[in-house]
Design brief:
There is one protein chain. The chain is an all-alpha fold and about 240 residues long. It has twelve helices and no strands. Helix 1 packs parallel to helix 3 (about 50-60), helix 4 runs antiparallel to helix 5 (about 100-110) and helix 10 packs antiparallel against helix 12. The longest helix is centred in the middle third of the chain and has 20 residues, at about 75-95.
Length: about 240
């Protein structure tokens, strides 16, 4: 009975995320994070509760993005995990589920919070479950470099100066070697493939021309250097 309700929670997440107005936090993003999560955890000796909890957390980690009418690159980044955890918690109460898989999944999303994650991790997660948080964080961060998601971010950057600024900020932050730190070996070993695909996409004629026109030659040259430097770290 509990497994059926967990499957129901996953289906609810699938349907809700399909309504997201945020093109970089939509159903396709969540589906990729779920697959990354499954892949990164496949070589670990996790019990059934841990496996189900981390996948449920992956499905619900961006649920808060479904309640906003337009994408937010600033304020939602600080509270989306906390809101998503509360939304999952509320739905599990409605379904009569407490503790176990749903409790651990909720705690994982709370602990993933950008603003309060460190504190919540210390309070909510036992040491044996902190590897689950590492996997979830790596999977979510990993998808930022997926080519389809980068296309969505690029399209957003053409709609307003705010999103254009957000694009530059995101590129600077995540392409700085000292900012991007995967915690699981599986994510590190897989990242070189997706980084290579991203470099090819950015270097393609039309995409490169857009970056040159939008941000200037100097910014583009610095960005390519950052990509090359990061590639050297994952060879």
């Amino acid at each position: 009975m509990q497994q059926k309700k967990i499957e129901q929670l996953i289906e609810i997440a699938r349907q809700k995320m399909a309504t997201s107005k945020d093109p970089i936090h939509d159903l396709s993003h969540v589906e990729r994070v779920v697959e990354y999560t499954r892949e990164f955890s496949s070589q670990l000796n996790l019990n059934s509760e841990q496996k189900n909890a981390i996948l449920l957390a992956a499905w619900w980690h961006d649920m808060a993005r479904t309640i906003t009418r337009r994408p937010s690159i600033v304020w939602m980044s600080f509270i989306d995990d906390t809101l998503s955890a509360l939304m999952l918690w509320g739905k599990t109460i409605q379904l009569g589920l407490f503790g176990g898989v749903v409790g651990l999944a909720t705690r994982l999303i709370f602990s993933k919070s950008f603003a309060t994650g460190f504190l919540f991790t210390r309070i909510f997660l036992k040491k044996k479950n902190r590897i689950l948080l590492d996997i979830l964080q790596d999977a979510d961060q990993f998808d930022l470099f997926h080519q389809e998601r980068m296309k969505s971010i690029q399209e957003m950057a053409t709609t307003s100066k705010l999103y254009s600024w957000g694009y530059k900020l995101t590129a600077w932050w995540f392409l700085s070697a000292n900012k991007l730190q995967f915690k699981t070996e599986m994510a590190k070993s897989c990242f070189k493939k997706i980084l290579f695909a991203l470099a090819q996409w950015i270097a393609s004629k039309n995409v490169c021309a857009w970056h040159m026109e939008t941000f200037g030659k100097r910014w583009c040259e610095k960005t390519f250097i950052r990509i090359q430097r990061m590639q050297s770290l994952y060879i």
